[in-house]
Amino acid sequence: LIVHGELYAEGSPERMIVFGSLGKQRKIEQSPIAKTTTPTFATNPSAMEGHGDTDPRIPKTVAADPPRAGDWAGIQIEATSPNSRLTYCRIQHATVGIRARTDAVQIESCLFSENNTGVLCESTNPTISRNEFNRNGIGTKLQGSASPEIEYNEFTANEYGISCEDDSRPRIQYNILRANYQNAITCYSTASPEIVSNNITMNI
Hints:
Layout: E1 2-3, E2 7-10, E3 17-19, E4 25-28, H1 39-43, E5 61-64, E6 75-77, E7 84-87, E8 89-92, E9 96-100, E10 105-108, E11 111-113, E12 117-122, E13 127-129, E14 132-134, E15 138-143, E16 149-151, E17 154-156, E18 160-164, E19 171-173, E20 176-178, E21 185-187, E22 194-196, E23 199-201
Parallel strand pairs: 1-6, 2-7, 3-8, 6-9, 7-10, 8-11, 9-12, 10-13, 11-14, 12-15, 13-16, 14-17, 15-18, 16-19, 17-20, 18-21, 19-22, 20-23
Antiparallel strand pairs: 4-5
């Protein structure tokens, strides 16, 4: 979902808006029709034509694999977007749940689950507060000169909680980072986050 204008997805705690996958569909060949000796086929051989594995009249059923991370690309908010706001949304099964290419994005009280990356900031400073990041590859990734305030969020059971790359300088405060399978916060290159008053426990 590529946003050049404004996207307002505002749910409620009882009725969250869901962006996700139902699983990738695949066709299943139906079992061939068994031959029969009813009088209709016996007296009308042409009625047998087309029956079997290749009969186009036999409907193919459609099944879906269970949904998983990377089933769809995600929500990409472009630099041309004047303003976007997502609250009480559940975003799941994406390559990148939200890719923010503008500062004018508010992401509050959302749940990011089973994405390769929950939120990606590309040299931008969106508002990221009071969200839950659960079972993602990376909860939040910061690239370039991204310097958002990441506060009052919960990062649990992700591979990595927060990844700071390049020259990113986020302010990470009042978050819970618990039971992530690798690092709670990873810093690469010349990244220099400010990490204040977080609860960081039980990470590998």
